[in-house]
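Q: What structure does this chain adopt?
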Amino acid sequence: MVFVAITARTVGALNITNNFIPLTRKPSTSTQGYVNIALTIVMIICAIAILDEASKKWYRELVMKECVEHGEAWSHRTRTSKRRRSVAAEVFTGQPEADQPKADGWGHSG
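A:
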């Protein structure tokens, strides 16, 4: 992912300086040059935003030892998430979790 971000920024900068700025100097292609510069800058900003969000998720996964699934965060230290317990309970018993006795992540009722 870092390779993609570095490549996108480098190629974008080189395209702007070597290809698109010379286009803006000619009256017949100036609009095309300005549009290409604007779109390239948007692409670079999007690549930076994607890398930023990915690095936040990597940090949570690798350092904080948390996992985020479907908007629900749970720690790797817990046996299963609430959502997985609910689905597993329904699959194995045929009834929704609300109709079953409450249990912690290790199967103990309480």
